[in-house]
Specification:
Elements lengths: L1 H19 L7 H27 L9 H13 L3 H20 L1 H25 L14 H21 L7 H11 L4 H21 L2 H26 L1 E7 L3 H12 L3 E7 L6 E10 L3 H11 L4 E7 L13
Antiparallel strand pairs: 1-3, 1-4, 2-3
Helix pairs in contact: 2-5, 2-6, 3-4, 3-8, 4-5, 4-7, 6-9, 7-8, 8-9, 10-11
Length: 318
Amino acid sequence: MKKTDAAKQAAKNAAMNAMNSLPVLPKMHIWDEVKDYMFITLGCMMYCVGFVFFMLPYQFIPGGCTGIAALIYYATGFQTQYSYLAINLVLLVIGLRVLGIKYFVKTIYAVAMITIGLEIVQRIAVQPDGTLMRLAHDDEFMAAVLGGCIEGTGLAIVFLNNGSTGGTDIVASIINKYKSFSMGRIIMWIDFMIVTGGGLLVLHDWHKVVIGYCVLLISMIMVDYTMNSATQSVQFTIISDKHDDIARVISTEVGRGVTVLYGEGYYSKAKRNVLIVMARRRESPQIFRLIRYIDPHAFVSQTKVVGVYGEGFDHIKS
C-alpha cells in the first residue's frame, strides 16, 4: 500500500511540475486581445453602415436578428436597435453556456457595438424630411449588391477575430464549433427562412423576397471569400530549442495534439526535435503568436492540406 501511495504521489507531483513549468506569456498577449476588439468594432460598424444605408431605405430583409428587427420596424416603426438588443439578450444566454466566457464577452461587446452603431448611423442617415438616405438612389439591385458586400465583409472581420455579432451568428458559431460546416452557409440557410417568411407575411411582396435572396447570396459569398483561408486545415512543422514549452502551450491554449519527431541536421549532425501540429487555418494566428512569444527564433513552416480526418477534424469519408 505504501508503495502504491508513493507512486500516486510521485505521479501527482510530476503533473504539478509539468503545469508549473508552462511558460508565462508576456504582456503582448494583451495587445493581441486589444486588436481583436478593435477589428470587431470595425466589422460591427461596417455591418451597421451596410444595413442602415442599403437595407432599411429600400425595405430589404437582410436576415438574422437585424432582419427580424427590420421586419418589426417595417410593420410598427419600432427602432431596430432596441428590438435587435432584446432578441440578442435571449440568445446570449445560450452563447454563455455553449461557447464559453471568453466568446461570450466578445459577443456582448459586438452586440453592444451594433446596437450603438445602429443608433449613430441612423442619426446620420436621417434626412430633413424624416426618411433615410438612399445612397444607391432608386437602383435597388445596386443597393442589394453594395449592402450585401459591406455586411458580409463586416461579419467576416468579426468572425476572424474570435467574435460574433449575436443572433443567428451565435447559432452558426455553435454548429461551426463542432462541425466543419462553412459559417456562411449555415447563416444563409437560417436567414433564408427569415427572408421568405418575413417577405411574404409582413411585406407581402415577392420582389422584396427575391432581392433579399440576392442580399443573402452576396453576403454569403463575401463571408466565405474573406474567411476561406481560415476554414482550411494546415500543418505546422516547428523546430526549436524550446520545443517542450511550445508543445505544452499549443496543447493547453489551442487544444491541438502535437507529434514529436526526432531528426538530425545533415551538416551539423546536431540532434533536433521536430514538432508536427495539425490545426484549422483560423487557429494559425494564435499558434504563430504562441510560438513567437516563447521562441522568436524558431524555425516554422506552414503548409495547406487537402483534408484532415479523425478526432478534432472531419469524419473519414467513404
